[in-house]
Amino acid sequence: MKSKKIREKFLSFFEGKEHKVVRSAPMVIKNDPTLMFTNAGMNQFKDYFLGDKEASDVRVTDSQKCLRVSGKHNDLEEVGLDSYHHTMFEMLGNWSFGDYFKEEAIGWAWELLVTEYGIDADRLYVSIFEGDDSDHLPIDEEARNIWKKYLPEERILLFGKRDNFWEMGETGPCGPCSEIHIDLRSEEERQATDGATLVNRDHPLVIELWNLVFMQYSRLETGALKPLPAQHVDTGMGFERLCMVLQGKTSNYDSDVFMPLIQQLSHISEIPYTGKYDSEAKKDMAFRVVVDHLRAVAFGIADGALPSNTGAGYVIRRILRRAVRYYYSFLDIKEPVMFALLTVLIDQMGDYFPELRQQKDLISKIIKTEEKSFLETLASGLKKLDEMNLQTGDLIDGDSAFELYDTYGFPIDLTRLIAEEHGAKVDMEGFEIALHQQRMRSKKDASKKVGDWRVV
To answer: What's the DSSP call for residue 7?
Structure first.
Protein backbone atom coordinates (compact mmCIF):
# COMPACT_ATOMS: atom_id res chain seq x y z
CA MET A 1 0.00 0.00 0.00
CA LYS A 2 1.45 3.37 -1.05
CA SER A 3 1.90 6.08 1.58
CA LYS A 4 -0.76 8.35 0.04
CA LYS A 5 -3.30 5.52 0.30
CA ILE A 6 -2.24 4.72 3.88
CA ARG A 7 -2.90 8.32 4.97
CA GLU A 8 -6.16 8.48 3.04
CA LYS A 9 -7.37 5.18 4.55
CA PHE A 10 -6.71 6.39 8.11
CA LEU A 11 -8.66 9.59 7.61
CA SER A 12 -11.56 7.96 5.75
CA PHE A 13 -11.83 5.25 8.43
CA PHE A 14 -12.40 7.81 11.17
CA GLU A 15 -14.57 9.93 8.93
CA GLY A 16 -16.77 6.83 8.74
CA LYS A 17 -16.85 6.88 12.56
CA GLU A 18 -18.37 10.39 12.49
CA HIS A 19 -15.07 12.27 12.89
CA LYS A 20 -14.52 15.56 11.11
CA VAL A 21 -11.35 15.52 8.99
CA VAL A 22 -9.41 18.72 9.74
CA ARG A 23 -6.30 20.19 8.12
CA SER A 24 -2.91 19.97 9.73
CA ALA A 25 -2.10 23.01 11.82
CA PRO A 26 1.07 24.92 10.86
CA MET A 27 4.29 23.31 12.03
CA VAL A 28 5.55 26.73 13.15
CA ILE A 29 3.56 28.09 16.08
CA LYS A 30 2.98 31.85 16.16
CA ASN A 31 0.80 32.46 19.22
CA ASP A 32 2.03 30.09 21.95
CA PRO A 33 4.91 31.41 24.09
CA THR A 34 5.50 27.91 25.52
CA LEU A 35 6.12 26.20 22.18
CA MET A 36 8.09 27.16 19.05
CA PHE A 37 7.05 24.22 16.86
CA THR A 38 4.17 21.78 16.80
CA ASN A 39 5.70 18.64 18.31
CA ALA A 40 2.59 16.50 18.74
CA GLY A 41 -0.78 16.08 17.10
CA MET A 42 -2.66 17.47 20.08
CA ASN A 43 -1.01 20.92 20.12
CA GLN A 44 -3.70 22.63 18.06
CA PHE A 45 -6.41 21.21 20.38
CA LYS A 46 -4.74 22.21 23.64
CA ASP A 47 -7.38 24.83 24.51
CA TYR A 48 -10.13 22.19 24.30
CA PHE A 49 -8.37 19.98 26.81
CA LEU A 50 -7.69 22.93 29.12
CA GLY A 51 -11.32 23.99 28.91
CA ASP A 52 -10.41 27.43 27.52
CA LYS A 53 -12.46 26.78 24.37
CA GLU A 54 -15.43 24.63 23.52
CA ALA A 55 -14.98 22.30 20.55
CA SER A 56 -17.45 22.80 17.71
CA ASP A 57 -16.81 19.17 16.68
CA VAL A 58 -16.47 16.59 19.44
CA ARG A 59 -14.78 14.04 17.12
CA VAL A 60 -11.94 15.03 14.80
CA THR A 61 -9.13 13.33 12.89
CA ASP A 62 -6.09 14.55 10.93
CA SER A 63 -2.48 14.02 9.97
CA GLN A 64 -0.43 16.66 11.76
CA LYS A 65 3.04 17.76 10.60
CA CYS A 66 5.37 17.88 13.62
CA LEU A 67 8.95 18.93 14.32
CA ARG A 68 11.10 17.64 17.18
CA VAL A 69 14.45 19.38 17.30
CA SER A 70 14.48 21.35 20.54
CA GLY A 71 13.51 21.20 24.20
CA LYS A 72 12.15 18.05 25.82
CA HIS A 73 11.45 16.36 22.47
CA ASN A 74 14.71 16.59 20.51
CA ASP A 75 15.42 13.86 17.96
CA LEU A 76 17.95 15.80 15.85
CA GLU A 77 21.08 13.93 16.89
CA GLU A 78 19.42 10.54 16.35
CA VAL A 79 18.47 11.27 12.72
CA GLY A 80 20.42 9.15 10.25
CA LEU A 81 21.89 6.93 12.95
CA ASP A 82 18.86 4.67 13.25
CA SER A 83 15.92 3.62 11.13
CA TYR A 84 13.08 5.51 12.80
CA HIS A 85 14.03 8.94 14.20
CA HIS A 86 13.11 12.08 12.22
CA THR A 87 13.05 15.83 12.64
CA MET A 88 9.82 16.47 10.69
CA PHE A 89 7.21 13.70 10.78
CA GLU A 90 3.47 13.21 10.42
CA MET A 91 1.29 12.21 13.36
CA LEU A 92 -1.95 10.48 12.48
CA GLY A 93 -4.54 11.06 15.17
CA ASN A 94 -8.15 10.87 16.27
CA TRP A 95 -9.66 12.88 19.11
CA SER A 96 -12.73 12.86 21.28
CA PHE A 97 -13.55 16.00 23.24
CA GLY A 98 -15.84 14.70 25.99
CA ASP A 99 -17.57 12.20 23.69
CA TYR A 100 -16.37 8.56 23.42
CA PHE A 101 -13.68 7.06 25.65
CA LYS A 102 -11.63 3.89 26.13
CA GLU A 103 -14.02 1.29 24.73
CA GLU A 104 -14.38 2.98 21.36
CA ALA A 105 -10.78 4.22 21.12
CA ILE A 106 -9.34 0.75 21.69
CA GLY A 107 -11.91 -1.06 19.55
CA TRP A 108 -11.45 1.26 16.58
CA ALA A 109 -7.65 1.15 16.82
CA TRP A 110 -7.78 -2.66 16.67
CA GLU A 111 -10.30 -2.63 13.82
CA LEU A 112 -8.21 -0.24 11.73
CA LEU A 113 -4.87 -1.98 12.26
CA VAL A 114 -5.99 -5.60 11.98
CA THR A 115 -9.11 -5.55 9.79
CA GLU A 116 -8.53 -2.53 7.54
CA TYR A 117 -4.73 -2.49 7.24
CA GLY A 118 -4.38 -6.27 7.60
CA ILE A 119 -1.60 -6.25 10.21
CA ASP A 120 -0.88 -9.67 11.74
CA ALA A 121 -2.53 -9.60 15.18
CA ASP A 122 0.03 -12.12 16.50
CA ARG A 123 2.73 -9.47 16.16
CA LEU A 124 0.93 -6.89 18.31
CA TYR A 125 1.46 -6.12 22.01
CA VAL A 126 -0.13 -3.43 24.14
CA SER A 127 1.01 -1.65 27.26
CA ILE A 128 -1.23 -0.20 29.96
CA PHE A 129 -0.66 1.92 33.06
CA GLU A 130 0.33 -0.15 36.09
CA GLY A 131 -0.77 2.50 38.60
CA ASP A 132 1.29 4.73 40.87
CA ASP A 133 1.26 4.88 44.68
CA SER A 134 2.57 8.47 44.87
CA ASP A 135 -0.41 9.70 42.86
CA HIS A 136 -2.81 7.21 44.48
CA LEU A 137 -3.61 5.81 41.04
CA PRO A 138 -4.67 2.18 40.52
CA ILE A 139 -3.90 -0.11 37.58
CA ASP A 140 -5.91 0.86 34.51
CA GLU A 141 -8.17 -2.19 34.82
CA GLU A 142 -10.72 -0.68 32.46
CA ALA A 143 -8.23 -0.60 29.58
CA ARG A 144 -6.90 -4.06 30.47
CA ASN A 145 -10.37 -5.61 30.43
CA ILE A 146 -11.15 -4.02 27.06
CA TRP A 147 -7.88 -5.28 25.55
CA LYS A 148 -8.68 -8.81 26.76
CA LYS A 149 -11.37 -8.91 24.05
CA TYR A 150 -8.65 -8.70 21.42
CA LEU A 151 -5.41 -10.08 22.90
CA PRO A 152 -4.29 -12.84 25.28
CA GLU A 153 -3.35 -11.50 28.69
CA GLU A 154 0.36 -12.29 28.27
CA ARG A 155 0.51 -9.66 25.51
CA ILE A 156 -1.07 -6.97 27.69
CA LEU A 157 1.92 -5.48 29.52
CA LEU A 158 2.10 -3.22 32.57
CA PHE A 159 4.36 -0.13 32.63
CA GLY A 160 4.73 2.85 34.95
CA LYS A 161 4.33 6.62 34.64
CA ARG A 162 7.34 7.08 32.39
CA ASP A 163 5.81 5.01 29.59
CA ASN A 164 2.09 4.89 30.22
CA PHE A 165 0.95 8.08 31.93
CA TRP A 166 0.83 11.06 29.59
CA GLU A 167 1.10 14.66 30.81
CA MET A 168 0.93 17.79 28.69
CA GLY A 169 3.23 19.65 31.08
CA GLU A 170 3.93 20.18 34.77
CA THR A 171 0.29 21.19 35.16
CA GLY A 172 -2.84 20.60 33.11
CA PRO A 173 -4.68 17.66 31.51
CA CYS A 174 -3.16 14.21 31.85
CA GLY A 175 -4.08 10.57 32.11
CA PRO A 176 -3.11 6.96 31.56
CA CYS A 177 -2.31 5.82 28.05
CA SER A 178 -2.27 2.54 26.21
CA GLU A 179 0.44 1.99 23.60
CA ILE A 180 0.23 -0.49 20.74
CA HIS A 181 3.59 -2.08 19.84
CA ILE A 182 4.54 -4.29 16.91
CA ASP A 183 7.19 -6.99 16.61
CA LEU A 184 8.75 -6.92 13.11
CA ARG A 185 11.45 -9.52 13.73
CA SER A 186 11.81 -12.71 11.70
CA GLU A 187 9.90 -15.85 12.73
CA GLU A 188 13.17 -17.42 13.88
CA GLU A 189 13.97 -14.47 16.14
CA ARG A 190 10.44 -14.40 17.51
CA GLN A 191 10.62 -18.08 18.40
CA ALA A 192 13.95 -17.57 20.15
CA THR A 193 12.97 -14.48 22.21
CA ASP A 194 9.53 -13.51 23.44
CA GLY A 195 8.60 -10.11 22.00
CA ALA A 196 7.01 -9.10 25.31
CA THR A 197 10.51 -8.87 26.83
CA LEU A 198 11.59 -6.36 24.15
CA VAL A 199 8.72 -3.85 24.39
CA ASN A 200 9.99 -0.40 25.45
CA ARG A 201 13.59 -1.64 25.28
CA ASP A 202 14.67 0.44 22.25
CA HIS A 203 14.78 -2.59 19.95
CA PRO A 204 14.67 -1.24 16.35
CA LEU A 205 12.20 -3.93 15.24
CA VAL A 206 9.96 -4.00 18.34
CA ILE A 207 8.51 -0.52 18.23
CA GLU A 208 5.64 1.58 19.47
CA LEU A 209 3.14 2.16 16.68
CA TRP A 210 0.18 4.00 18.23
CA ASN A 211 -0.44 5.72 21.55
CA LEU A 212 -3.98 6.04 22.91
CA VAL A 213 -4.14 8.69 25.64
CA PHE A 214 -7.12 8.78 28.00
CA MET A 215 -7.29 12.21 29.60
CA GLN A 216 -9.05 11.78 32.91
CA TYR A 217 -7.24 14.17 35.27
CA SER A 218 -5.78 17.63 35.64
CA ARG A 219 -2.42 18.09 37.38
CA LEU A 220 -2.69 20.99 39.85
CA GLU A 221 0.08 23.38 40.91
CA THR A 222 0.31 21.44 44.17
CA GLY A 223 1.12 18.30 42.21
CA ALA A 224 -2.19 16.69 43.13
CA LEU A 225 -4.52 15.18 40.53
CA LYS A 226 -8.10 16.31 40.08
CA PRO A 227 -10.61 14.44 37.87
CA LEU A 228 -11.52 16.40 34.73
CA PRO A 229 -15.17 17.42 34.28
CA ALA A 230 -15.08 15.62 30.90
CA GLN A 231 -12.99 12.70 29.67
CA HIS A 232 -11.08 13.05 26.41
CA VAL A 233 -9.23 10.80 23.95
CA ASP A 234 -6.02 11.89 22.21
CA THR A 235 -4.27 9.36 19.97
CA GLY A 236 -1.09 9.60 17.91
CA MET A 237 0.44 7.18 15.40
CA GLY A 238 3.66 7.83 13.50
CA PHE A 239 2.79 7.91 9.80
CA GLU A 240 6.31 7.00 8.67
CA ARG A 241 6.42 3.96 10.99
CA LEU A 242 3.01 2.80 9.79
CA CYS A 243 4.18 3.03 6.17
CA MET A 244 7.27 0.98 7.04
CA VAL A 245 5.10 -1.73 8.63
CA LEU A 246 2.51 -1.91 5.85
CA GLN A 247 5.17 -1.93 3.12
CA GLY A 248 7.05 -4.81 4.73
CA LYS A 249 10.21 -2.81 5.46
CA THR A 250 12.46 -2.75 8.51
CA SER A 251 13.38 0.95 8.24
CA ASN A 252 11.24 4.04 7.78
CA TYR A 253 13.74 5.21 5.18
CA ASP A 254 13.09 2.15 3.02
CA SER A 255 9.41 3.07 2.61
CA ASP A 256 8.10 5.17 -0.28
CA VAL A 257 7.97 8.18 2.05
CA PHE A 258 11.76 8.55 1.74
CA MET A 259 13.07 6.28 -1.04
CA PRO A 260 12.15 8.54 -3.99
CA LEU A 261 14.17 11.35 -2.34
CA ILE A 262 17.09 9.03 -1.55
CA GLN A 263 17.08 7.67 -5.11
CA GLN A 264 17.16 11.18 -6.58
CA LEU A 265 20.04 12.17 -4.29
CA SER A 266 21.85 8.95 -5.24
CA HIS A 267 21.37 9.82 -8.92
CA ILE A 268 22.72 13.35 -8.44
CA SER A 269 25.72 12.26 -6.34
CA GLU A 270 26.39 9.13 -8.45
CA ILE A 271 26.83 7.22 -5.18
CA PRO A 272 24.67 4.13 -4.46
CA TYR A 273 22.61 3.98 -1.26
CA THR A 274 23.14 0.61 0.48
CA GLY A 275 20.93 1.13 3.54
CA LYS A 276 23.58 0.28 6.13
CA TYR A 277 23.35 1.50 9.74
CA ASP A 278 26.79 0.77 11.20
CA SER A 279 28.99 3.61 12.44
CA GLU A 280 31.28 3.35 9.41
CA ALA A 281 28.48 3.81 6.85
CA LYS A 282 28.82 7.61 6.71
CA LYS A 283 27.56 7.86 3.14
CA ASP A 284 24.32 6.04 3.94
CA MET A 285 23.86 8.18 7.03
CA ALA A 286 24.36 11.29 4.91
CA PHE A 287 21.60 10.21 2.51
CA ARG A 288 19.18 9.81 5.42
CA VAL A 289 20.15 13.08 7.07
CA VAL A 290 19.78 15.13 3.88
CA VAL A 291 16.34 13.81 2.86
CA ASP A 292 15.02 14.01 6.42
CA HIS A 293 16.29 17.56 6.92
CA LEU A 294 14.96 18.71 3.54
CA ARG A 295 11.42 17.89 4.71
CA ALA A 296 11.85 19.86 7.93
CA VAL A 297 13.35 22.88 6.17
CA ALA A 298 10.77 22.94 3.35
CA PHE A 299 7.80 22.75 5.72
CA GLY A 300 9.37 25.25 8.10
CA ILE A 301 9.80 27.81 5.31
CA ALA A 302 6.29 27.11 3.99
CA ASP A 303 4.95 27.93 7.46
CA GLY A 304 6.86 31.21 7.66
CA ALA A 305 10.06 30.31 9.53
CA LEU A 306 12.59 31.87 7.15
CA PRO A 307 16.20 31.01 8.03
CA SER A 308 17.62 33.62 10.40
CA ASN A 309 19.85 34.03 13.43
CA THR A 310 17.10 33.89 16.05
CA GLY A 311 14.06 31.90 17.09
CA ALA A 312 12.34 29.42 14.83
CA GLY A 313 14.28 30.74 11.81
CA TYR A 314 17.58 29.80 13.46
CA VAL A 315 16.34 26.25 14.12
CA ILE A 316 15.54 25.90 10.40
CA ARG A 317 18.97 27.31 9.49
CA ARG A 318 20.69 24.88 11.88
CA ILE A 319 18.90 21.90 10.33
CA LEU A 320 19.76 23.02 6.80
CA ARG A 321 23.42 23.60 7.62
CA ARG A 322 23.67 20.21 9.30
CA ALA A 323 22.42 18.62 6.05
CA VAL A 324 24.87 20.65 3.94
CA ARG A 325 27.78 19.50 6.05
CA TYR A 326 26.75 15.87 5.61
CA TYR A 327 26.49 15.97 1.83
CA TYR A 328 29.67 18.07 1.54
CA SER A 329 31.78 15.77 3.73
CA PHE A 330 30.39 12.32 2.92
CA LEU A 331 28.78 12.54 -0.54
CA ASP A 332 31.44 14.85 -1.99
CA ILE A 333 28.81 17.34 -3.23
CA LYS A 334 30.21 20.87 -3.35
CA GLU A 335 27.24 22.68 -4.93
CA PRO A 336 23.69 23.32 -3.61
CA VAL A 337 21.64 20.13 -3.96
CA MET A 338 18.76 20.19 -1.48
CA PHE A 339 16.72 22.64 -3.53
CA ALA A 340 16.95 20.21 -6.47
CA LEU A 341 15.14 17.54 -4.44
CA LEU A 342 12.16 19.78 -3.77
CA THR A 343 10.21 18.68 -6.88
CA VAL A 344 10.28 15.05 -5.68
CA LEU A 345 9.09 16.08 -2.22
CA ILE A 346 6.21 18.11 -3.66
CA ASP A 347 5.16 15.22 -5.91
CA GLN A 348 4.94 13.04 -2.80
CA MET A 349 3.30 15.39 -0.32
CA GLY A 350 1.92 18.38 -2.23
CA ASP A 351 -1.58 16.94 -2.59
CA TYR A 352 -2.19 16.67 1.16
CA PHE A 353 -0.03 19.69 2.07
CA PRO A 354 -0.85 22.22 -0.69
CA GLU A 355 1.33 24.89 0.95
CA LEU A 356 4.35 23.14 -0.58
CA ARG A 357 3.02 23.62 -4.12
CA GLN A 358 1.77 27.12 -3.48
CA GLN A 359 5.17 28.28 -2.23
CA LYS A 360 7.46 26.08 -4.31
CA ASP A 361 9.42 28.93 -5.93
CA LEU A 362 9.95 30.74 -2.64
CA ILE A 363 11.03 27.58 -0.79
CA SER A 364 13.40 26.58 -3.60
CA LYS A 365 15.00 30.02 -3.82
CA ILE A 366 15.52 30.32 -0.06
CA ILE A 367 16.99 26.82 0.31
CA LYS A 368 19.37 27.33 -2.61
CA THR A 369 20.51 30.73 -1.27
CA GLU A 370 21.09 29.28 2.21
CA GLU A 371 23.01 26.31 0.83
CA LYS A 372 25.21 28.53 -1.31
CA SER A 373 25.91 30.91 1.57
CA PHE A 374 27.01 28.16 3.96
CA LEU A 375 29.05 26.30 1.34
CA GLU A 376 31.17 29.46 0.93
CA THR A 377 32.38 29.25 4.56
CA LEU A 378 32.02 25.51 5.25
CA ALA A 379 35.32 24.49 3.64
CA SER A 380 37.26 27.09 5.64
CA GLY A 381 35.58 26.04 8.89
CA LEU A 382 36.26 22.36 8.28
CA LYS A 383 39.87 23.19 7.47
CA LYS A 384 40.17 25.02 10.80
CA LEU A 385 38.79 21.95 12.58
CA ASP A 386 41.22 19.70 10.69
CA GLU A 387 44.10 21.90 11.84
CA MET A 388 43.10 21.20 15.44
CA ASN A 389 43.99 17.53 14.78
CA LEU A 390 41.32 16.39 17.21
CA GLN A 391 41.95 13.19 19.16
CA THR A 392 39.88 11.16 21.60
CA GLY A 393 39.49 13.12 24.84
CA ASP A 394 40.39 16.52 23.34
CA LEU A 395 38.40 19.65 24.19
CA ILE A 396 37.60 22.43 21.72
CA ASP A 397 37.87 25.63 23.76
CA GLY A 398 34.95 28.05 23.94
CA ASP A 399 36.65 30.80 21.92
CA SER A 400 37.40 28.44 19.02
CA ALA A 401 33.84 27.09 19.06
CA PHE A 402 32.55 30.67 19.03
CA GLU A 403 34.82 31.59 16.11
CA LEU A 404 33.41 28.66 14.12
CA TYR A 405 29.92 29.93 14.95
CA ASP A 406 30.53 33.63 14.38
CA THR A 407 32.96 33.61 11.43
CA TYR A 408 32.16 30.36 9.62
CA GLY A 409 28.45 30.00 10.41
CA PHE A 410 28.77 26.67 12.26
CA PRO A 411 25.81 26.13 14.61
CA ILE A 412 27.23 24.93 17.94
CA ASP A 413 25.52 21.54 17.64
CA LEU A 414 27.33 21.02 14.31
CA THR A 415 30.67 21.73 15.97
CA ARG A 416 29.77 19.30 18.74
CA LEU A 417 28.77 16.66 16.19
CA ILE A 418 32.11 16.92 14.36
CA ALA A 419 33.98 16.87 17.67
CA GLU A 420 32.13 13.71 18.72
CA GLU A 421 33.12 12.02 15.46
CA HIS A 422 36.73 12.39 16.66
CA GLY A 423 35.98 11.42 20.27
CA ALA A 424 36.38 15.03 21.41
CA LYS A 425 34.12 17.49 23.24
CA VAL A 426 33.35 21.22 23.20
CA ASP A 427 33.74 23.62 26.12
CA MET A 428 30.08 24.65 26.13
CA GLU A 429 30.43 26.93 29.14
CA GLY A 430 33.25 28.83 27.42
CA PHE A 431 31.20 29.05 24.22
CA GLU A 432 28.21 30.50 26.08
CA ILE A 433 30.44 33.11 27.75
CA ALA A 434 31.90 34.18 24.38
CA LEU A 435 28.41 34.28 22.86
CA HIS A 436 27.11 36.42 25.73
CA GLN A 437 30.02 38.84 25.40
CA GLN A 438 29.35 39.19 21.67
CA ARG A 439 25.69 39.94 22.34
CA MET A 440 26.64 42.61 24.83
CA ARG A 441 29.00 44.19 22.27
CA SER A 442 26.26 44.10 19.63
CA LYS A 443 23.83 45.87 21.94
CA LYS A 444 26.40 48.55 22.70
CA ASP A 445 27.29 49.03 19.02
CA ALA A 446 23.64 49.29 18.02
CA SER A 447 23.03 52.08 20.49
CA LYS A 448 23.47 55.67 19.28
CA LYS A 449 22.39 59.13 20.39
CA VAL A 450 19.97 61.12 18.27
CA GLY A 451 18.92 64.33 19.99
CA ASP A 452 17.07 63.48 23.18
CA TRP A 453 16.32 59.96 22.00
CA ARG A 454 18.40 56.86 22.62
CA VAL A 455 17.66 54.49 19.74
CA VAL A 456 18.59 50.82 20.10
So the answer is: H
